[in-house]
Amino acid sequence: MLESAELYFNVDHGYLEGLVRGCKASLLTQQDYLNLVQCETLEDLKIHLQTTDYGNFLNNQTNPLTVSKIDTEMRQKLCREFDYFRNHSLEPLSTFFTYMTCSYMIDNVILLMNGALQKKSVKEILVKCHPLGRFTEMEAVNIAETTSDLFNAVLVETPLAPFFQDCMSENTLDELNIELLRNKLYKSYLEAFYKFCKNHGDVTAEIMCPILEFEADRRAFIITLNSFGTELSKEDRETLYPTCGKLYPEGLRLLAQAEDFDQMKRVAEHYGVYKPLFDAVGGSGGKTLEDVFYEREVQMNVLAFNRQFHYGVFYAYVKLKEQEMRNIVWIAECISQRHRTKINSYIPIL
Amino acid sequence: MAARDVRTELDSLILQLLADLEELEAKRAALNGRVEEGWLSLAQARYAMGVKSVGPLQYASRMEPQVCVCASEAPDGLQNLRVVRAGAQIPEEVGPREAALRRRKGPTKTPEPESTTAPQDPLNWFGILVPHSLRQAQASFRDGLQLAGDIATLQIRISWGQRICFPNFLQ
């Protein structure tokens, strides 16, 4: 089978690839970040953002400006761009986009269920749901009492339906079960997305598969780290690890037995990719494991733009945009809390 | 002789007042530090989990307090304010309810509302697998609470000293 991406890709997807590369060029630069870091108030931040590609996106927000409002508006902007891409896409790029939105859908479902536990009104939560993960059956999520209810009554027609195979149970949805549901859904989703990319082959598989493998391993490490000192048992923990990464199967088995950070680090030292990441944790900058993983993710996503004729550029663009939003929110929080010691802990992209 | 006693007592009261003021300043600075740390750790948790995952959506509008302020009389007649866990206050009521719970652990598995013998950790509102920064935030805010109780006690003592003690002595 000849590698045919260069011959046929532009017929269906050339316009969108050109568009996404243009969007990528408008990400904030190091100079923009230096300007933002020097702002004294959130109003200054808004003025500086007006000179970038964000423009007047905060003009509809009433005073006083809060970090949460900035985050909401940034998300809306990304969603508008993404919807434009999705509306102009053809198969199989459309399926690829659907896969990308599934992770946000899972987050929204969990947000709605947690809100139901805390007796919040559905309208209040719907406003805060991620716009990329919107689907019509969202409002009905809070009526479900068990996972089977949730599947049969609400989610069976959505793209999330295939990911429910391992999660069906009759247990009532309390905090622990909701957390287990979130991680199991995400595991199924990641494995399905990985298989889709691998079956597609071509440059897409070459770019996306390492990115998704890293995502799977990152989740395994973070789940392990956060489960120390909680009521989650080791067997339960092992069922949450996605199996499409480099750690499968020996690494995951070792990770399931780890009881503290040093044991986890020893597992990571068996893998050439992860050893330097774990070595960078701590140090003089006080970097956490999450920071180190975010940096590595940014590296991989920037490199995705070095190849042409693949779908990975769309995934990479959305992830880089998300990192940019995280950076801006972090800077905004430091400004609003007037605590500037760690304001430079953002991750520059371009 | 009496005048000298009054003067020595006045001196010791002034020294006590100044020592209290110094302690109050130190405790206020510590409280500010703890609260700032707590808020920064919350911002770090938002960086790791997402901005909408650590916010007003995660807590109920009505909550059961986990700590209470306990007022007691100190030997010198002043109020002493301490911050204590809420559960520790009502030992009498837990007894008969515990026996009732033991009976309920039989074969019937109807989900009955459990009495709050073990108050739920607010950390679980944000999920079971929370990042380390959220736990740090909780620890900082808890330390701040203890300091707040101490600061209140100190302020009562200082204002008593200023209002009542000195005018009486100077007469």
TrEMBL record, chain A:
It comes from the Eukaryota. GO terms for molecular function: proton-transporting ATPase activity, rotational mechanism. Transmembrane segments: none annotated. It holds the Pfam family vATP-synt_AC39. Keywords: Hydrogen ion transport, Ion transport, Transport. GO terms for cellular component: apical plasma membrane; early endosome; proton-transporting V-type ATPase, V0 domain; vacuolar proton-transporting V-type ATPase complex. InterPro entries: ATPase_csu/dsu_sf, ATPase_V0-cplx_csu/dsu, ATPase_V0-cplx_dsu, V-type_ATPase_csu/dsu, V-type_ATPase_csu/dsu_dom_3. The keyword Nucleotidyltransferase does not apply. V-ATPase is a heteromultimeric enzyme made up of two complexes: the ATP-hydrolytic V1 complex and the proton translocation V0 complex. The V1 complex consists of three catalytic AB heterodimers that form a heterohexamer, three peripheral stalks each consisting of EG heterodimers, one central rotor including subunits D and F, and the regulatory subunits C and H. The proton translocation complex V0 consists of the proton transport subunit a, a ring of proteolipid subunits c9c'', rotary subunit d, subunits e and f, and the accessory subunits ATP6AP1/Ac45 and ATP6AP2/PRR. Subunit of the V0 complex of vacuolar(H+)-ATPase (V-ATPase), a multisubunit enzyme composed of a peripheral complex (V1) that hydrolyzes ATP and a membrane integral complex (V0) that translocates protons. V-ATPase is responsible for acidifying and maintaining the pH of intracellular compartments and in some cell types, is targeted to the plasma membrane, where it is responsible for acidifying the extracellular environment. May play a role in coupling of proton transport and ATP hydrolysis. Regulator of osteoclast fusion and bone formation. Belongs to the V-ATPase V0D/AC39 subunit family. This is V-type proton ATPase subunit. It comes from Oryctolagus cuniculus. The gene is ATP6V0D2.
Automatic annotation (TrEMBL), chain B:
Residues 95-122 are annotated as: Disordered. One of its GO terms (molecular function) is unfolded protein binding. Keywords: Coiled coil, Cytoplasmic vesicle, Endoplasmic reticulum, Endosome, Lysosome. It is found in: Cytoplasmic vesicle, COPI-coated vesicle; Endoplasmic reticulum-Golgi intermediate compartment; Endosome; Lysosome. The keyword Coiled coil applies. GO terms for cellular component: COPI-coated vesicle; endoplasmic reticulum-Golgi intermediate compartment; endosome; lysosome. InterPro entries: Vma22/CCDC115. Pfam families: Vma22_CCDC115 (PF21730). Accessory component of the multisubunit proton-transporting vacuolar (V)-ATPase protein pump. Accessory component of the proton-transporting vacuolar (V)-ATPase protein pump involved in intracellular iron homeostasis. In aerobic conditions, required for intracellular iron homeostasis, thus triggering the activity of Fe(2+) prolyl hydroxylase (PHD) enzymes, and leading to HIF1A hydroxylation and subsequent proteasomal degradation. Necessary for endolysosomal acidification and lysosomal degradation. May be involved in Golgi homeostasis. This is Vacuolar ATPase assembly protein VMA22. The gene is CCDC115.
